[in-house]
Amino acid sequence: QDNSWQPVILPTDPAFEPVSRVAADPNGGIWVGTKRYKLHRFQNGSWTTWSQADGLSSHTVTALFVSRAGEAWVAGEQPAMLASVSAGKIRSLPLPSSVVRILSITEDATGQIWAAGDNGTLLSVKDGSVADKSLRTVAPPSFHCLLAMPDGTLWIGSDGSGVGRLKAGRLEFI
């Protein structure tokens, strides 16, 4: 906030532990995902919490990302989930049955959301619709991190296959 670091103290409440993911949003908010069906946001000195009752279906938050527009994206496991949080509401998206766990989420230059995870999972989300771009091989790698570049290239860090590059619809590992 104001181009300086500000300490954020988690409440001494079991609902805030154990923390699994943290993300900052462009409006100075801090998002915190847990391993106990909880998602928290700290904004303007107060906490807001979402739980199973609010639509957070996963036990553990495995990825957390905030878009340039301020929309939070959350993924989880047990069961697998991908959802957006906008205007205080969680909206879960349907996932292919092959998705076990999403580990990374990013946004490309066009505003498209990308999610990647175990078993070669690679999903794109545009206008609320999920497209499955997953790698279909005998032993697909797990994708652990994503980096979107201004030229449209999506870099993918994997477990076992090194670094991949998705550009113009073509995925190559280097």
Q: How would you describe what is shown here?
A:
The protein has a four-stranded antiparallel beta sheet with strand order 1-2-3-4, with no helix packed on it. The protein starts with 18 loop residues before the first strand and ends with a strand. It is built from no helices and 16 strands. The protein has strands spanning 19-24, 30-34, 39-43, 46-50, 60-66, 72-77, 81-86, 89-92, 102-107, 113-117, 122-126, 129-132, 142-148, 154-159, 163-167, 170-173.
Features:
four-stranded antiparallel beta sheet, single chain, mainly beta, 0% helix, 174 residues, 49% strand
Q: What's the gist of this structure?
A:
The chain is an all-beta fold. Helices cover 0% and strands 49% of the residues.
The string of secondary-structure elements, in order, is EEEEEEEEEEEEEEEE
How many DSSP E strands? 16
**Overall helicity:** under 10%
Query: How does the overall form come out from the CA principal axes?
Result: globular
DSSP strand (E) fraction?
Answer: over 45%
Radius of gyration: 16 Å
Taking the sheet with the most strands, its summary is:
4 strands, antiparallel
Q: What oligomeric state do these chains adopt?
A: single chain
The unreliable regions are none
The helix tally amounts to 0
Name the strands of the widest sheet in spatial order. 1-2-3-4
Roughly what is the average pLDDT, rounded to an integer?
Answer: 90
Structural class: mainly beta
**End-to-end distance, in Å?**
38 Å
